[in-house]
Automatic annotation (TrEMBL):
It comes from Malaciobacter marinus. It is found in: Cell membrane. GO terms for cellular component: plasma membrane. GO terms for biological process: L-valine transmembrane transport. It is a multi-pass membrane protein. This is Branched-chain amino acid permease. The keyword ATP-binding does not apply. The keyword Transit peptide does not apply. Belongs to the AzlC family. InterPro entries: Brnchd-chn_aa_trnsp_permease. The chain crosses the membrane at residues 12-30, 37-56, 68-91, 124-145, 157-175, 182-198, 204-220. It comes from the Bacteria. Keywords: Cell membrane, Membrane, Transmembrane, Transmembrane helix, Transport.
């Protein structure tokens, strides 16, 4: 178990630079919005969802009903239902408490790294190790941004706004194995672009993710039948 956690931690360490940078940006924004570090720390511990935290911080600084904030955060994180479903094999012999604990630390990055190595017969503790790595680095990033962000007046000048785009481009590239993967990537991106123009909120992310998932299932079933 300890070795699996360590291996998962180390496997996610290379991408932690981007995670740290993104966390620092959140810390900087919290400072400018008047969010206390205690509030930021509690969000890191109990929410631990980068995109949702950015949304919450932005909404907290505006006179918006709390129910709208909660609904918007849940909407953004609906993709974790898909992530959880894809990890069913890893959690097959796990208790409900263990599933809940480990899933709290699952991130897009740790999930992607784990799925890219799923042929290596990894256990759920590898996933946990990756999640803990991202959690620690994210917390340190937000801490640094909150207290030292005053030295960075404009994050875009340093390319910090591009950090996560570069990160996920690298992850998606590493997960590419067959022509079907390319078809799924392009199809999902196409759906996202189309619905982003039609739907006024973040629902297009869920729609494109579901569409890509259904296409993945269809293509894999067709490959098995050939």
């Amino acid at each position: 178990m300890k070795n699996e956690i360590k291996n998962g931690f180390m496997a996610n360490l290379p991408i932690s630079v981007s995670v740290f940078t993104y966390g620092a940006v959140l810390g900087i924004i919290c400072t400018s919005k008047g969010i206390s570090f205690l509030q930021l720390a509690l969000m890191n511990i109990f929410i631990f969802a980068g995109s949702a935290q950015f949304l919450i911080v932005d909404m907290l600084s505006n006179p918006i009903n709390i129910s709208i904030i909660i609904w918007s955060a849940l909407l953004i994180n609906l993709r974790y239902f898909l992530i959880g479903a894809s990890l069913n094999e890893f959690f097959r012999n796990s208790s409900l408490k263990k599933k809940a604990f480990i899933m709290h630390f699952v991130t897009d990055e740790s999930w992607a790294i784990t799925m890219s190595k799923k042929d290596e017969n990894l256990s759920v503790y590898f996933l946990l190790g990756g999640g803990l790595c991202i959690f620690i680095v994210w917390f340190l990033g937000t801490l640094s941004g909150y207290y030292f962000g005053e030295f960075i007046s404009n994050p875009k000048l340093f390319g910090l706004d591009f950090a996560f785009l570069a990160l996920f481009t690298a992850i998606i590239t590493s997960m590419y194995k067959t022509k079907n993967d390319l078809v799924i990537y392009l199809f999902t991106a196409f759906i996202a672009v189309i619905f982003e123009k039609i739907i006024p909120n973040m629902s297009y992310i869920i729609i494109s993710a579901l569409s890509g998932s259904f296409l993945y299932v269809y293509l894999n079933k067709r490959s098995c039948n050939e």
